[in-house]
């Protein structure tokens, strides 16, 4: 299969290169109004920037929707999902994950604990999103050098930016068969005069997820046909309001999120006695499913987060200032890791963030944004599995991004300085880092279908809490295991900031019948931070040490959509996409948990109110898993879907949809996942839903 994959990928990549696009769009997206990038505050569309951008919105977002941000993005070129069971899906960008990927909610941090451990979910709800924007390259410095891999911004309407002419809203109910998951969503937008409001609510419940075969083939006691303790329950409620005059506004919102989910057996080093009757374990509620088990053997995470947002946009303050944007977020996050009825570890992250952006009018034809970002966090973990000390973290950032237009060329320059201060309660001195990030890009566009962009950047990332302070002050014999990785991790306060020199080259092509892009990239890391196996053990648990050495990442991403023509009263379109990513450490071999090579295609048909699609993704074997990691087999995944819209009255519409996922019930072991050996991805699923919009 590897040979066939490479033979097929080469002509597809060349075809994409000679018929490529104005960044990652397709006819499946709503194109009546071209999407304006929220994450880049200079009034740009995707076609107006040289940096690699992925946007999900409209039908494409709805067709990709899942209950985690990682799974929602997983089938886009260059993106993958770091799953930890079905309830945890952290995004992976070009092989980077964790602290190197910044997840934003409306341009400020998600402020949870997802970057600290692979079993912690990201506290954003993609099903409530209006769009999801993913940035790689130079403009990631708008959000800090920590976004050395990329930025994911989930954009919703919780703070209204305009007063609707009439009351609008959405009601949606969907059900998935693979885990008996039911999701209900409600959103309402209204206002009068200068006042606007937004309300939304979400409720989701699911049972154990079905899979083909055994969860852990090497374990004779493993469940067969499902993953035990993978059920979940989530609720989210949001209230927002704004005062709006012309284009300017000030608004606030408050959101409450509660999320409780199970961690697959074996992930936390526990071994359970399983019920042999799959149907009973899958269909009964959580209490019945685990009846008869030892309480302390069931590991679950119970998350509570309250988030307050204030946002203000003031336009045309003076002729020299086009726009002043202010974002303020205060977040109170906590979760407990339950072992039966007992609390194993309690995590807390209390944080606030201030972000100011000033967009100025052109000065000598240079147009851009100057900004300040300040963030304070208090992060703590208490309990038997607490491997980091309580730490106060302060981040201060100053950034500028400017662009210049001359003829067919657009040039962009950017710079950012960050100051990071980490003060653990276990030390008398704090660790401080000053980081500098720089960027430059050029975009050539003419009246021809072609455009070419090149982006250069140098990014610096300061070490984070777990890299510096894991098991800080503990001695051999008292080290605390990080159960998510089934290892003991040792921090190192002597770590330096890591630096990455990056180059992206993107070729785009767009006509009435073809729309596509191809991007090649190269990232050269100095002092890349990674976990090195010390070859020592404590109670048969491996001891890993955070260390540094140089590393290289390189790859290709492409996607092209071809309008094939009209037939049967409708229009056919074919999309071809794929990616290839390699990561190599200087002396320690391959970077672990890298995504495999992928090649995919999607055939879509649209006829009036009806739209359908069928897609296939061919993933190669991941035979470069990294030191002491297991390789994963390739797979072929088929998906299909159908949407049907019915206009009920003026501004009212009903949408019925049906999704078929993993149609062939393929066993998929996700190479980006810590749990690939004990928790494969979901099996065949049928998802049906109804959405009413008014």
UniProtKB/TrEMBL annotation:
Region (Disordered): 261-296
Keyword field: Cell outer membrane, Membrane, Signal, TonB box, Transmembrane, Transmembrane beta strand, Transport
Leader sequence segment: 1-22
Molecular function terms, GO-annotated: siderophore uptake transmembrane transporter activity
Domain spans labelled TonB-dependent receptor plug: 47-151
One Pfam family from the record: Plug
Primary localisation category: membrane
GO BP annotation list: siderophore transmembrane transport
InterPro entries, per database record: Beta-barrel_TonB (IPR000531), Beta-barrel_TonB_sf (IPR036942), Plug_dom (IPR012910), Plug_dom_sf (IPR037066), TonB-dep_rcpt-like (IPR039426), TonB_rcpt_CS (IPR010917)
GO cellular component: cell outer membrane
Membrane spanning residue stretches: none
Subcellular location: Cell outer membrane
Residue span(s) of domain TonB-dependent receptor-like beta-barrel: 326-650
Family: Belongs to the TonB-dependent receptor family.
PANTHER family tied to this protein: TONB-DEPENDENT OUTER MEMBRANE RECEPTOR, TONB-DEPENDENT RECEPTOR NMB0964-RELATED
Annotated protein name in UniProt: Ligand-gated channel protein
Organism: Oceanicoccus sagamiensis
Lineage, top ranks: Bacteria, Pseudomonadati, Pseudomonadota, Gammaproteobacteria, Cellvibrionales
């Amino acid at each position: 299969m590897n040979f066939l994959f490479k033979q097929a990928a080469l002509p597809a990549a060349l075809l994409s290169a000679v018929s490529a696009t104005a960044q990652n769009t397709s006819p499946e997206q709503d194109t009546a109004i071209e999407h304006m990038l929220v994450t880049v505050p200079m009034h740009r569309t995707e076609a107006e920037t040289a940096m690699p951008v992925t946007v999900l919105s409209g039908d494409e977002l709805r067709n990709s929707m899942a209950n985690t941000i990682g799974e929602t993005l997983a089938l886009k070129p260059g993106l993958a999902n770091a799953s930890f069971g079905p309830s945890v899906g952290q995004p992976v960008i070009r092989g980077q994950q964790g602290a190197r990927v910044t997840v934003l909610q409306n341009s400020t941090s998600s402020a949870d604990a997802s970057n600290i451990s692979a079993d912690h979910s990201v506290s954003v709800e993609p099903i409530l999103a209006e769009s999801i924007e993913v940035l790689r390259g130079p403009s990631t410095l708008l959000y800090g050098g920590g976004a050395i891999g990329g930025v994911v911004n989930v954009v919703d309407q919780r703070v209204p930016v305009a007063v609707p002419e009439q009351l609008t809203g959405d009601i949606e109910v969907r059900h998935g068969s693979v885990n008996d998951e039911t999701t209900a969503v409600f959103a309402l937008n209204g206002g009068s005069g200068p006042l606007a409001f937004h309300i939304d609510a979400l409720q989701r419940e699911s049972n154990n997820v079905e899979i083909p075969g055994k969860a852990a083939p090497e374990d004779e006691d493993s469940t067969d046909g499902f993953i035990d303790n993978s059920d979940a329950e989530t609720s989210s409620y949001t209230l927002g309001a704004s005062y709006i005059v012309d284009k300017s506004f000030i608004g606030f919102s408050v959101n409450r999120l509660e999320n409780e989910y199970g961690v697959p057996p074996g992930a936390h080093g526990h071994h359970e006695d399983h019920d042999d009757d799959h149907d009973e374990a899958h269909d009964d509620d959580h209490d019945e499913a685990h009846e008869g088990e030892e309480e302390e053997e069931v590991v679950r995470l119970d998350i509570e987060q309250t988030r307050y947002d204030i946002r203000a946009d003031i336009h045309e303050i003076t002729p020299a200032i086009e726009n002043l944007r202010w974002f303020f977020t205060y977040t109170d996050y906590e979760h407990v890791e339950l072992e039966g009825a007992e609390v194993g570890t309690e995590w807390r992250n209390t944080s606030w963030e201030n972000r100011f952006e000033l967009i100025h009018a052109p000065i000598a034809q240079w147009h851009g944004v100057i900004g300040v970002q300040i963030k304070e966090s208090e992060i703590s973990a208490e309990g038997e599995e607490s491997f980091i000390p309580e730490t106060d973290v302060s981040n201060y950032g100053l950034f500028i991004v400017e662009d210049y237009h001359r003829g067919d060329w657009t040039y962009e320059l950017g710079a950012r300085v960050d100051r990071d201060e980490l003060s653990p309660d276990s030390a008398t001195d704090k660790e401080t880092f000053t980081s500098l990030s720089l960027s430059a890009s050029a975009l050539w566009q003419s009246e021809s279908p072609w455009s070419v962009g090149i982006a250069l950047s140098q990014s610096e990332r300061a070490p984070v809490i777990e890299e510096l302070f894991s098991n800080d002050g503990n001695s051999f014999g008292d080290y605390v295991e990080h159960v998510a990785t089934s290892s003991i991790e040792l921090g190192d306060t002597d770590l330096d900031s890591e630096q990455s020199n990056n180059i992206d080259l993107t070729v785009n092509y767009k006509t009435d019948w073809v729309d596509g892009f191809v991007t090649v990239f190269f990232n050269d890391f100095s002092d890349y931070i990674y976990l090195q196996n010390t070859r020592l053990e404590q109670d048969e648990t491996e001891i890993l040490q955070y260390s540094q050495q140089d590393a290289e990442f390189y790859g290709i991403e492409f996607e092209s959509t071809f309008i094939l023509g009209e037939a049967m009263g409708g229009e056919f379109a074919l999309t071809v996409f794929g990616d290839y990513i390699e990561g190599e450490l200087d002396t320690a071999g391959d970077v672990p948990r890298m995504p495999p090579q992928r090649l995919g295609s999607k055939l879509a048909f649209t006829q009036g109110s009806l739209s359908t699609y069928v897609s296939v993704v061919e993933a190669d074997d991941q035979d470069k898993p990294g030191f002491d990691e297991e390789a994963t087999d390739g797979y072929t995944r088929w998906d299909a879907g159908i949407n049907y819209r019915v206009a009920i009255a003026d501004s009212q519409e009903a949408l019925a949809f049906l999704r078929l996922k993993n149609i062939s019930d393929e066993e998929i072991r996700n190479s980006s996942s810590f749990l690939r050996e004990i928790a494969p991805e979901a099996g065949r699923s049928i998802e049906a839903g109804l959405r009413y919009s008014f």
